[in-house]
Amino acid sequence: MRTSQLIKSTVLLGCLLIGALSAQAQSDFPNKPIKWVVGYSTGGPTDVIARIVSQDVSTSLGQAIVIENRLGANGNIATESVAQAPADGYTLLVNTLALNVNAILAQGRVKYDPVKDFSPITLAVALPQYLIVGYNSRFKTLADLVQKAKSQPEAISYGSSGNGGSAHLAAALLESRTQSKMLHVPFKGNAPAMTEVMAGRVDFMFYPMIGVVEHEVQKQIRILAVTTPKRYVDTPHVPTMAESGFPGFEEYVGPVGFVAPAGTPQVILDKLSSAIRASLTKPSIEQKLRQLGSVVVASTPSEYKQWLKDDYARWNQLIKTADIKDQP
Description:
This protein is an alpha/beta fold. The chain contains 11 helices and 11 strands. It has helices spanning 3-28, 45-61, 76-83, 98-105, 142-151, 166-178, 190-199, 212-217, 266-280, 283-291, 301-321, and strands at residues 34-38, 65-69, 91-95, 118-127, 129-134, 157-160, 183-186, 204-208, 221-226, 254-261, 295-296.
């Protein structure tokens, strides 16, 4: 056999062997622990949701799931680390809206592309918000608040957990829809922002649904609206944003989803998605997640891919229209 033919045969044999090993690895998946990377602190909403789901998924897949909290840069450190991880299904990102929003706000500075660098697995849950005011606030309805905002620029203030977060963006959307100018007051977290709303030093804020009802019962806050498509089961007395004259807010929700590095084999993505979605739809787990103020979605990989694409377009348009910058 000629040398060139021998080389070609060796290369072909190598390719076939690699392909066979790859197919075997995919069919055996998972055969070692899986890491879920969370870009936020232990005990936060994203972390708690990930841990609730991981316990059941670990059982169904027969492998341990390790939660790794990689803090910093509003989730960027975690996101960038997963973008650079092997595309084998053993390292996933538990993503939030920061996946898209950070890429828009810090375009050219983040070290990932939200579309090119990730393979969607599932949108696990959505995190709607309540629009709240202090219990003694002069604003009894959203219409009252909006009327004041439109008549007097920056007379109305709103709190948030920080620049570019879900509360900030929701209020910016309200500004845009009402063609008003309000005063953004960012805090280091939702809790201190709510404290100022309770005290009446900040007029309102959008707040994740977890724990809000307890504050309403204690007459510390009042809920003017909710961003769910229909009235939420726990607060049937609270109108939706759409009922209050502002349809579309239900689309601007904070997601908690799962994505893998780009190039992860589809068979692995499908297996992961099926396991996570099966867990999410179990009544016991769905109940726990509802208590955290989240609404189960459990989308397929293709559904989540389209959702992320639409979500990027939504935030991109809002951020440009509202002229939101990376820093306050």
